[in-house]
Write a structure and sequence with these properties.
Number of strands: 3
Distance between the termini: 48 Å
Structural class: mainly alpha
Radius of gyration: 19 Å
Number of helices: 7
Strand order of the largest sheet: 1-2-3
Largest sheet: 3 strands, antiparallel
């Protein structure tokens, strides 16, 4: 099947896409990342939908660049128009394959446990991955501050809070 497309994500048993908003559009849209469910549990179907979503996203960003400044609301409206048809295709009674369901639940639980272990390791070392740092940056910006203008201790604290803890190890906070 090959490598998984860069924008394809999986949460529990459902695939989705996550795109980084181009830097020149982040201020106007008020967001740095855009994600949506592909409403697909099958890997092959998810790959096909991911390719379609990637084309849609590229076209939409190009359209936003060539028009007057657009808002997050307009991006959300465009996304609803594009992504909702997949949700409507699934809006019907579903039959669950119990064997696959159990496997999906086990996968989800193990993925969650792995992520919690990663976060605990990051907290112990006070060194955070890009996902935690980006989300910490978003939290600070939503609170009306600029992450880059915070002191090192406050940046570390914001990352630790995002990682799920409020206690920062004193050895790295100095």
């Amino acid at each position: 099947m090959g490598r998984r497309p860069r924008h394809l994500t999986r949460r529990a048993a459902v695939y989705g896409v996550r795109f980084r908003i181009p830097a020149d559009l982040t201020n106007g849209l008020g967001m740095k990342e855009f994600s949506r469910s592909l409403h697909a549990k099958d890997a092959q179907e998810a790959r096909q939908r991911c390719l379609a979503a990637t084309r849609w996203f590229g076209d939409t960003m190009a359209r936003f660049r060539s028009s007057p400044p657009l808002s997050r609301t307009e991006l959300e409206s465009a996304a609803v128009e594009f992504f909702d048809r997949w949700a409507k295709d699934l809006d019907q009674p579903r039959e669950f394959d119990l064997e696959r369901h159990d496997e999906d639940v086990r996968f989800s639980i193990e993925s969650s446990r792995d992520r919690l272990r990663q976060l605990d390791q990051q907290l112990a070392a006070n060194v955070f991955d890009a996902q935690v740092s980006l989300r910490a940056r978003n939290i600070v910006e939503e609170a009306g501050s600029d992450f880059d203008n915070l002191g090192a201790h406050d940046q570390l604290f914001a990352q630790a809070v995002r990682a799920g803890r409020t206690r920062v190890h004193a050895s790295s906070a100095a």
